Write the structure tokens for this entry.
Amino acid sequence: MLDMAQIEALRAAPVADRDHLVDGRSFSPTSGQRLDVKTPIDGSVLTTMARGDATDVEAAVSAARRAFADRRWRGLPAARRKAIMARWADLIEAELLELTVLGVRDNGTEIAMAIKAEAASAAATIRYYGEAIDKMSGEIAPTPDNRLGLVHREPVGVVGAIVPWNFPLMIGAWKLAPAIAAGNSVVLKPAETASLALLRLAELAHEAGLPDGVLNVVTGLGGEAGAALAASSDVDVLVFTGSGATGRKLLQASAESNLKRVYLELGGKSPNIVFADAPDLETAAEAAVNAVFRNSGQVCVAGSRLLVERSIHEEFIERLRSRADRMRVGDPLDPETQIGAVNSQSQLHANLKAVAQAQEDGARVIGGGQRLLESSGGYYMQPTIIADVALAHRLFQREVFGPVLAVTTFDGEAEAVALANAGPYGLASGVWTADLARAHRMVMAIKAGVVHVNTYGGTDITVPMGGQKQSGNGYDRSLHALDKFQNLKTAWIAID
Ligand code: ADP
């Protein structure tokens, strides 16, 4: 149960101005420039943070490089490194509500979701990779008798991590924890509208005993601090979650600098497919609205394209509409709220524009589409359902990253597969059917990193998450995530 009195006290707590965190210390921006941090709850200024530039990024990358070179972290015994990561997770859990409320004030996610998906998830992720530290080892290859082939797993060196604003702690931990567990140093660039909780998370790492310089945080704008990190020739691997447009810039920056490996998670337009033989249409409808409206649709795996078999189409839309109408939109710090604030004014405007454009193009707006609670100064939007969205339409093809569900009808399995695989993305998907053979056929046919069957969303650290097609490459979560942060090196030894 969330403690309302504690939430209200935390809501009102002043937030100190924040600097970067470099080499274990607070680091003022070299330029002296700062950014206002606005809360999407009511548009007011919460605090300020450092506006990082290339000079600040260079200082952070140098600190990370020094920490890697002198082995102050990777040289520690595995049991010690494991204990430090476990302690880090403990410290996060000890201030779960404080971290969650700080994050919600910064990014607007409803607290009912953030309390599980943010700080708690980050602690679990850090614990999971900490526990993996003394279970990772290299290989002895099955070579001829007179040769010994040892395959070492080595940390890559300095990792740059650029993360988004929708789930900063969860996604941040997906990048930081395996990178650090594998023995690397990290420079993190959080999103400009969700940096505060991650700065605190990094402070807790130091309190837990992570040596200085192993985890550095540079805040600021994507086009400045982020671009400088991507362009650095001393960053060995860059990991990113965010938009496709930025992902392309990161690949370019790699090509124009040191050819660093770049791993991208770029969102999607994930199809949620409801067959007429779904085991329970009520459950499917409930899952479908949650799949796209929670966190105002700002979820990379959101089931934002609903494909419904023609025979149940109108009936199913009605079920969706009645549910969406009842969803509580508003103050993200109220535990009863189901849809909090859109993260920024610009995202809100982009969402409203996408709806207006769809309407102009002849799609049918079933419900929603309007801004809400404007007088609060915050950024709120109604859950929006748009039917008759044609294959060629932008709403079918492109991510909105808002509470906007595009519904399309299909006839039969073959058309469902064709529609599911149309478009540039391949991140997530869902299939609702009571036919086991059909479910397996769909899993094989859909091009996506995950196919949910008779459920949507909800996951576990033990399974990988990654995209196909233009949703990206590489995997977060599970032991596979460690591969991004390691090089294989062969020792080829004569033993004649
Ligand atoms: P969105 O448009 O949804 O905010 P972005 O891809 O722009 O998504 O943001 C994700 C992260 O990428 C943020 O941390 C942002 O600061 C960063 N970013 C944005 N533009 C650039 C860029 N040109 N170079 C590096 N990082 C960037």
About this structure: The longest strand covers residues 147-155.
